Amino acid sequence: MDFLNDIKEKIIVSDGAMGTYYKALYPDDNGIVERAVLSHPERIEDIHRRYIKAGASFIRTDSFACAGPFISSSGEAAEIARASYRIARKAAGSCYVAADIGTIFDPAMEGSLLSDIRPVIDAFLSEGAEIFDFETQTQTEGLSEIFSYIREKKREAIILVSFSINKAGMTTGGLSVDNIMRYCAEEENIDGYGFNCGVGPSHMASIIERAHFYCDKPFIVMPNAGYPYTLRGRQIYRGDKEIFSDKLGIIVKSGAALIGGCCGTDPDFISRISEKFGHSALYPKQIMELSGKKKRTRSSFYKKLIAGEKPIIVELDPPFGSDISKVMKSAQRLSDAGIDMITLSDSPMGRSRMDPMLLGTLMQQQCGVDVMPHVACRDRNIIGLRGGLLGSYAAGIRHFLMVTGDPVPAADRNQITPVFDYNSIRFMNMARLLNDEEFSNDRIIYGGALNYHGRNPDAIAKRMGLKIEQGASFFLTQPVYGADDARRIAYLKEKTGARILCGLMPLVSYRNALFMSTEMPGIHVPDEIVGRYSADMTREEAEETAREVTLDICDQIRDVTDGYYFMVPFNRVSLICSIINEIRDRYF
């Protein structure tokens, strides 16, 4: 048997759902279905045989959850993989058997997905697996490394991958259908690709009809039977076998080569599509040229940044209440001073303020200055984050600072629930995908916050590198107060090649300086700076000292920083403007 030659000549019918069908047959078994290969192997073998009798010539092992969080022990996951392959192979006869691996996902994008899944892959290889089916994927990060590992271990291995999409044609990881089609065309270690799960047959057919093909690799489609409802704690899938097979007909005409079913499909569904399409000739796909999309960036801030012109940005805090008169007055004054951009914080320290994206839209329109909202993953789920970017883009916002977000204060945690669906790295990944798809005519520019004071600078540099891979164009630091800070930032720039705008926050009184030096974690104010203030200074004397200290710091960071990022203490906008004017006189 040669699967790749076979699938290039005729339609191959796969099995249907293992998990939902098992639960329908054995409703009293409340355990994870994959563990049944150890506790009830005869049941799993029987299900395989039922699908084969229905007309499937391609079956998948009962091992979907071995890749996810449901089976935390790598030893148990490997044992299930080995047992599942033996059972499927015993039932298969002349059918193809695929080692099934479900959703692989690292929400932080900081670990190695390969190290997590390697024991399962090795277990399958030890049993002689030749076909690997990575189904219900939601993102592409880390997959190429896994595919390369399989190729290194077994050159002739066949690698299939399919993604789960919603009715809008998006994965929960933010990938669009076109993102997926391009990735699978370009990834040389993928032999077949497509979509499974997430949607019923009607939505799947509609999505596939609109999709663009960029390669002639075998195309896989396995929709759900329909959409589920819950009855007595069980998910039951609505689905009509005739509608399912009719919609599979549309999908087949679009060029699908491997068809089957996902959640809610049973042997009757597979029997119906096998009668109609099993071993039929393939319909040709219309292949489009895989060309790079033109990307435009109109941001004057970004153009200054890459040209080495050291832009000046100033951070303002949105108000706690509804009165925006003070912050808008400050913004207008800064705009008149000719700064390059205003950035708006997003509820720092977990204390609720006015939404910076909404305020930023109004400020940009009324004050004539570009605005960069901070967006914290703490307060919005995936849907809210994506919707916020799309809405802000439509309103003219093109710059964002993407942060994971300060934790909710301990005293508030009984009432306030932090979300953290994403961290800043995964959020940047979403933005990168949107730049490829929705924003390609005028890309958004985004960056990250940089806490450069951590104990391990190499670990900090590694995290910066992950953000740069996801499209981060710059980093904004916490306030810099001395030569030690400048040296640490220089080291991080050398390690990463990042563009870093150093934070500057004038200390406007002795009390302010003392507070910053003793009670602000992650910020180091040298004693000699605190010593330049005294408790009996007038406001004017303290502000003059703040001005002198800040300009001294600017001299120390001049050769390190890629721009100047001012934080306004106590709304002292006049002080900030005077410092900015002096910087321009000295350096520009």
Short structural summary:
This protein has 588 residues and is an alpha/beta fold. It has 22 helices and 18 strands.
Folded structure, characterized:
This protein is an alpha/beta fold and 588 residues long. Helix content is 43%, strand content 14%. It has helices at residues 3-7, 19-25, 36-39, 41-53, 74-92, 113-126, 143-153, 177-186, 201-210, 241-253, 267-277, 300-307, 325-336, 356-367, 382-394, 424-437, 457-469, 483-496, 510-519, 527-530, 539-557, 573-587, and strands at residues 12-13, 58-60, 96-101, 131-137, 158-163, 192-196, 219-222, 228-231, 234-237, 256-259, 312-316, 341-344, 371-376, 399-403, 445-450, 475-479, 500-504, 564-567. The strands form three sheets. The protein has an eight-stranded parallel β-sheet with strand order 1-10-7-6-5-4-3-2. It has an eight-stranded parallel β-barrel with strand order 11-12-13-14-15-16-17-18, surrounded by five helices. It has a two-stranded antiparallel ribbon with strand order 8-9.
Compute the number of helices: 22
Strand order of the largest sheet: 1-10-7-6-5-4-3-2
Shape designation: elongated
Over the alpha carbons, how many angstroms does the gyration radius reach?
A: 29 Å
Average per-residue pLDDT, rounded, comes to 93
Instruction: Name the beta content range.
Output: 5-15%
Spell out the key features of this protein:
single chain, 588 residues, alpha/beta, eight-stranded parallel sheet, eight-stranded parallel β-barrel, 18 strands, 43% helix, 14% strand
Secondary structure blueprint with pairings:
Blueprint lengths: L2 H5 L4 E2 L5 H7 L10 H4 L1 H13 L4 E3 L13 H19 L3 E6 L11 H14 L4 E7 L5 H11 L4 E6 L13 H10 L5 E5 L4 H10 L8 E4 L5 E4 L2 E4 L3 H13 L2 E4 L7 H11 L22 H8 L4 E5 L8 H12 L4 E4 L11 H12 L3 E6 L5 H13 L4 E5 L20 H14 L7 E6 L6 H13 L5 E5 L3 H14 L3 E5 L5 H10 L7 H4 L8 H19 L6 E4 L5 H15 L1
